[in-house]
Specification:
368 residues, mainly beta, Immunoglobulin-like, 3 domains, nine-stranded antiparallel sheet, six-stranded mixed sheet, disordered N terminus
Length: 368
């Protein structure tokens, strides 16, 4: 903030330097558009006078306090002349990514009108299961008043989050779109008589010169992984696998890398650091290409997917959030996990109540 002729002047990020002073009003260069007067503000204990680029003036009792973040998002990009005379609703979209724990986001509503209050009269909701927005309607925002809503995205909810909140403010409808995915899983243990396999697919471009010298270059930094696994399931497990895979044919699953199984010393609720009974330094996927782990209790058919914050030692891992429930370490295995889609599934019946399910999962990439 600068001072000119006893007036306090707000400067915004990216604003050109003030060149000269005309008639007691600070000015700045606007290139070919000539010079435009800046917003000025008297001391807080006196009337504050603003001069906008359109040349209009108004007097108000208190200085404008621009909520933090609006100038950096707006003024530096499109000019402060667009900051006022409207309602700011931010953000318009929240991408929650893979939802493995409860998330909290904040929605800002700011009345930037210089001469009137606005009323939030209603908020319509569409597909909002798994989310909560703590708004109050009707609610009136005075001149320059801001309200902040808390958006909670819950761990439990639909596998594909595609929610809309549409507030109506002074007859105009705004929109908040929430997207994300909750990873599905199956709990049966693989048939260890048929070792699970993992394949790595590398995408390269190949070229050859006139001397038939071949050269290859990578198109992607990391390989795409495929996991081929066979489950031997009976009765209830067979029904669970069938129902889950039937539902998940177009959904994203948390696919364990079964070849790198680990066992924990403790899996109590609230735990953020998992210590393993043995070193995992030779688990290549876990140490190099892993963002999530899946904790599977095969016996009690319980599971949870957790996001990794840091692999700090060869025998432990830090999570971004505490465990939501307690697992019995005698029945529970921890696996590195990749987001994947089911590419193929074949059922083979051994007896009336025993089946082999051969599955192939492909790693999910946002780029396809």
């Amino acid at each position: 903030m600068a001072s000119y002729c006893g007036l306090k002047v707000h400067t915004f990020p990216g604003q050109p330097e003030i060149k000269k002073d005309l008639g007691g009003l600070p000015m700045r260069s606007r290139g070919d558009r000539g010079q435009q007067p800046l917003m000025v503000e008297e001391a807080a204990d006196t009337h504050a006078r603003n001069v906008f680029p359109c040349g209009k003036r108004f007097v108000r009792e208190t200085p404008v306090l621009i909520p933090q973040g609006y100038c950096s998002n707006s003024c530096a990009n499109i000019g402060d002349e667009y900051l006022y005379g409207r309602v700011w609703f931010w953000p318009n979209e929240v991408n929650a990514g893979f939802i493995t724990s409860e998330q909290t986001h904040y929605v800002n509503v700011w009345n930037a009108h210089v001469d009137k209050s606005v009323t939030i009269s209603a908020v319509s909701e569409t597909n909002t299961d798994g989310t909560t927005l703590n708004y109050t309607v009707p609610f009136t925002l005075g001149i320059y008043q801001e309200t902040i809503w808390t958006l909670t995205i819950e761990q439990e909810g639909p596998s594909t989050q595609n929610a809309y909140y549409r507030p109506t403010i002074d007859g105009t409808q705004y929109e908040l779109h929430i997207i994300g995915s909750r990873l599905l899983w199956v709990t049966p243990e693989p048939d260890w008589a048929k070792t699970p396999r993992i394949r790595y697919e590398f995408q390269t471009a190949k070229s050859m010169n006139k001397y038939y010298v071949e050269q290859r270059r990578p198109l992607v930094v990391e390989p795409r992984r495929k996991i081929i696994v066979t489950f031997m399931v009976t009765e209830v497990e067979a029904q669970e696998v069938f129902n889950t895979f039937s539902y998940a044919h177009d959904k994203i699953l948390a696919v364990p890398i079964y070849n790198e199984k680990m066992f924990a010393t403790s899996l109590d609720a609230g735990l953020t650091r998992i210590v393993f009974t043995e070193s995992h330094e030779y688990n290549w996927n876990f140490n190099n290409l892993c963002q999530h782990i899946i904790i599977l209790d095969h016996y009690n058919r319980m599971a949870t997917v957790e996001e990794i914050d840091n692999i700090d030692t060869t025998t432990s891992v830090e999570l971004t959030a505490g465990l939501g429930q307690t697992f019995d370490v005698n029945y529970t295995t921890v696996y590195p996990s990749i987001p994947g889609v089911l590419r193929s599934m074949k059922w083979q019946e051994h007896t009336e109540d025993k089946f082999n399910v051969n599955c192939e999962f492909q790693e999910f990439w946002l780029s396809g």
